[in-house]
Amino acid sequence: QxxxxxFKQRKNDGVVSFRVPIDELREITDTKNELLSSSxxxxxxxxxxxxxxxxxxxxxxxxxxxxxxxRKIGSIRFLMRSRRSFYDVDYWNPVDLVPNDH
Length: 102
Fold this sequence. Notes:
It is a single chain. This protein is α+β, with helices and mostly antiparallel strands and 102 residues long. 25% of the residues lie in helices and 32% in strands. It has 2 helices and 4 strands.
């Protein structure tokens, strides 16, 4: 069984990142023989899961980057950072305070 310590981790400026080979990610998510198109896999596994996590108002936000190995995606780098406020829901656009219209 794979655990988080199996994957390379890096902390930088409050961001924790870890890289997961796509083959390992497909094994973990039980999609080796499903969602064979990379766009289907990305939408159903990556985007939908990350939207659910970020929408849950957990203490952190998560995003990802695709790492290419030639012409195909070889691995996914997940990025995690602390949520700055209740209104902070987009990893790439931090929100510290309550928006002006609330």
